[in-house]
Automatic annotation (TrEMBL):
Name of this chain's protein: Nicotinate phosphoribosyltransferase
Pathway entry: Cofactor biosynthesis; NAD(+) biosynthesis; nicotinate D-ribonucleotide from nicotinate: step 1/1
GO annotation (BP), single: NAD+ biosynthetic process via the salvage pathway
Source domain of life: Bacteria
PTM note: Transiently phosphorylated on a His residue during the reaction cycle. Phosphorylation strongly increases the affinity for substrates and increases the rate of nicotinate D-ribonucleotide production. Dephosphorylation regenerates the low-affinity form of the enzyme, leading to product release.
Organism encoding this protein: Nibribacter ruber
PANTHER family according to UniProt: NICOTINATE PHOSPHORIBOSYLTRANSFERASE
Domain Nicotinate phosphoribosyltransferase C-terminal: residue ranges: 372-477
NCBIfam families named in the record: NAPRTase_put, PRK09243.1-2, PRK12484.1
Record flagged with keyword Zinc-finger: no
EC number: 6.3.4.21
Length: 489
């Protein structure tokens, strides 16, 4: 169920080179073990949506658990040259890497959780050299899977209980885009996939119909349906649009009748072109009139959440949505802009110095501290997320400040309940978290989306969920910014 099922054990080189050059720099300065805190977060919900679904943690855990350089990795690094053709990495540094063990403490938000901009999905605390090396692989895993899980959740939400099958492998960004994308799509709520290896690796249910080539390989369309039904009498879904869709439906009915005479039922038909609203309504009529109300209608052809919503409004009679390209590639937004920022560094007195990355825009200034996300509920409904730093006490009653407009405050009533979202995953390198099954993660996504007010779920201009900074954290952040700006002037 994890990354090593797709790759061989060592992924230590799956990082950007600048992480290794900085690592050598920290080592050379005797700062390799200096304790640091980094947060991984994004700044905008993808797809102009109102929420995001976290995904990829299990793969991230696997990466961290196996973190370590093999002799082969070190031999490769030993022959990397600097611009004057000298070895880029020093022998002593490579020896340091050879004995390196993962010793960080990691907290993360469980997969399948509704998350929002500016809140850490993951917090890593440990030797700065290790945190630095892990920036890129953690981002590549969590950014992509979170993006695809969110895309899938949006589709599942508008499909309102209809089944969704993921058909995207052929259009995915390579084999890993396909495998990790299918995993994430399942986290988001799809019911099945055509991706057989994802079925084997992750236990995702497999489903499929047949291609146009099957029909085209016969002289007559009806012969192709008969032949398929002969091989799969209880598992046939005929693709009816190769020549003329509604004529294709009539031929499917002829074969369905023959199947029934032999004690079998046709499972479904698939529409893959034309006006899917009109054709599904007409196909439904033909099937119902012929006595096949249970034969389901599958539709595919460049579908996404907007088309699903529109087709439903048009009264389309589609039972199952087959979705490929737009899901597996997150077509309208191919990347989640998650970042990984240094937030605190331990000084020689053992105290935490808060760190921020300045920007002209307040929204882009990172938040320092050792952050936790506290989610408040009013009678079960989510009312806001407050970032606070675990090394500070929280002023009571809990009040948070708008991250980009300090004049706006929000207080939470005493009667509100709360939950801290970041849970321990590793304690000083030791794994302390058991990932739920993928089915349980999917169930969590469903529960999370359903617990969001519908104003956050609509596709067009959703309401913005409130994420703020606990008052003292906000004050500390402002102090650091003022101090840095005065020093930069
Ligand atoms: N009723 C509808 N309302 C809105 N969009 C629709 C409707 N029916 C189909 N679509 C979408 O319109 C697009 C039409 O795609 P396209 O232009 O490729 O036509 P096609 O029917 O697939 O033709 P072809 O036979 O060339 O494949 C697809 O994304 C499809 O999902
Ligand atoms: O449209 P998507 O959402 O990406 O879904 C996957 C598409 O892949 C197949 O088409 P393709 O033309 O590749 O093969 P086919 O001959 O089986 O239709 C299938 O028929 C879908 O249309
Ligand atoms: O099984 C299907 O119908 C299928 C599989 C992959 C891509 N398109 C369709």
């Amino acid at each position: 169920m994890n990354l090593s099922k797709r790759y061989q054990p060592s992924l230590a080189l799956l990082t950007d080179m600048y992480q290794l050059t900085m690592a050598q720099g920290y080592w050379k300065q005797n700062r390799a073990e200096q304790q640091a805190v980094f947060h991984l977060y994004f700044r905008k919900n993808p797809f102009k949506g109102g929420y995001t679904i976290s995904a990829g943690l299990e793969d991230a855990m696997d990466l961290l658990q196996k973190f370590g350089f093999t002799q082969e990795d070190l031999d490769f690094l030993a022959q990397v040259k600097s611009s004057n053709q000298q070895p880029l990495f020093e022998k002593g540094f490579l020896e340091y890497l050879a004995q390196l063990k993962f010793t960080c403490t990691v907290h993360a938000i469980p997969e399948g959780t509704a998350v929002f901009p500016n809140e850490p999905l993951l917090r890593i605390q440990g030797p700065i050299l290790q945190c630095q090396l892990l920036e890129t692989p953690l981002l590549t895993i969590l950014n992509f899977q979170t993006l695809i899980a969110t895309k899938a959740a949006r589709m599942v939400d508008v499909a309102k209980g209809d089944a969704i099958i993921e058909f995207g492998m052929r259009r995915a960004q390579g084999p890993d885009g396909s495998l990790s994308g299918t995993r994430a799509a399942f986290v988001g709520g799809i019911g099945a996939t055509s991706n057989v290896l994802a079925g084997k690796l992750y236990g995702i249910p497999l489903k499929g119909t047949h291609a146009h080539s099957w029909v085209m390989s016969f002289d007559e369309e009806v012969e192709s349906f008969e032949a398929y039904a002969h091989v799969f009498p209880d598992d046939s879904v005929f693709l009816v649009d190769t020549y003329h869709t509604l004529e294709g439906v009539k031929k499917a009915i002829v074969v369905a009748q023959k199947l029934r005479e032999k004690g079998h039922e046709l499972k479904g038909i698939r529409l893959d072109s034309g006006d899917l609203a009109y054709l599904s309504i007409e196909a439904r009529k033909l099937l119902d009139e012929a006595g096949f109300p249970k034969v389901s209608i599958v539709a595919s052809n460049d579908l996404d959440e907007y088309l699903i919503e529109s087709l439903k409004i048009q009264g389309a009679r589609i039972d199952t949505w087959g979705i490929g390209t737009k899901l597996i590639t997150a077509y309208d937004q191919p990347a989640l802009g998650g970042v990984f920022k240094l937030a605190a560094l331990q000084n020689e007195q053992g105290l935490w110095d808060y760190k921020v990355k300045l920007s002209e825009q307040l929204i882009k200034v990172s938040t320092p501290g050792i952050l936790q996300v506290r989610r408040f509920f009013d009678k079960g409904t989510l009312v806001g997320d407050m970032l606070y730093s675990e090394d500070q006490t929280i002023a009571q009653p809990a009040t948070m400040v708008h991250p980009n407009d300090p004049t706006q405050h929000k207080s939470f009533k005493e009667s509100c309940t709360h939950e801290d979202l970041l849970v321990p995953i590793f304690q000083q390198g030791k794994l302390v978290y058991t990932s739920p099954t993928l089915q349980d993660i999917q169930a969590r996504t469903k529960q999370q989306v359903e617990s969001l007010h519908e104003t956050y779920r609509r596709l067009l201009n959703p309401h913005i969920y409130k994420v703020g900074l606990e008052q003292q954290l906000h004050q500390k952040k402002m102090d650091v910014i003022v101090d840095l700006r005065s020093r930069a002037d």
